Amino acid sequence: MEVVIENPTESNLDCLPDDCKGCVYWEAPEVSAKGRSGPVKKKWLLDTLREFGNCGKIVYSNSKAVGCALYGPSDRFRNVREYGSGQSEL
């Protein structure tokens, strides 16, 4: 089994697994339950890449994307405010 880990780029965003591509719970909670979140996720990723730089990893197994992890400044993850982090600036 071959495992490859890549940074997300504009050219590989469509390769994200469906579960990752459609989940905007942290990035856009107001859209999360309404469906059609794929375009929102792609815009969020592109904006974050431009403004912040690398913001995650995509894991491939045998050339198929099987998972991803995203990271960045807390203000890019709007739903983090719903969780007690102890930081008043959130």
Overview of this protein structure:
With 90 residues, this protein is α+β, with helices and mostly antiparallel strands. It has one domain (3-82). It is built from 3 helices and 3 strands, in the order βαααββ. Strands 1-2-3 form a 3-stranded antiparallel beta sheet, with no helix packed on it. The longest helix is centred in the middle third of the chain and has 14 residues, at 38-51. The chain is globular, with a radius of gyration of 14 Å. The mean pLDDT is 88.
List keywords for this structure.
90 residues, alpha+beta, 3 strands, globular
Please report the distance between the alpha carbons of the first and last residues. Answer: 42 Å
Trace the largest sheet across and list its strands: 1-2-3
Count of domain modules: 1
Strand content: 15-25%
Described by strand count, sense and barrel closure, the largest sheet is: 3 strands, antiparallel
Please tally the β strands and state the result.
3
Order of helices and strands: EHHHEE
Shape: globular
Number of helices: 3
Average pLDDT metric = 88
Structural class: alpha+beta
Provide the helix percentage: 10-25%
Low-confidence stretches: none
Calculate Rg over CA atoms.
Answer: 14 Å
Question: What's the quick description here?
Answer:
It is built from three helices and three strands.
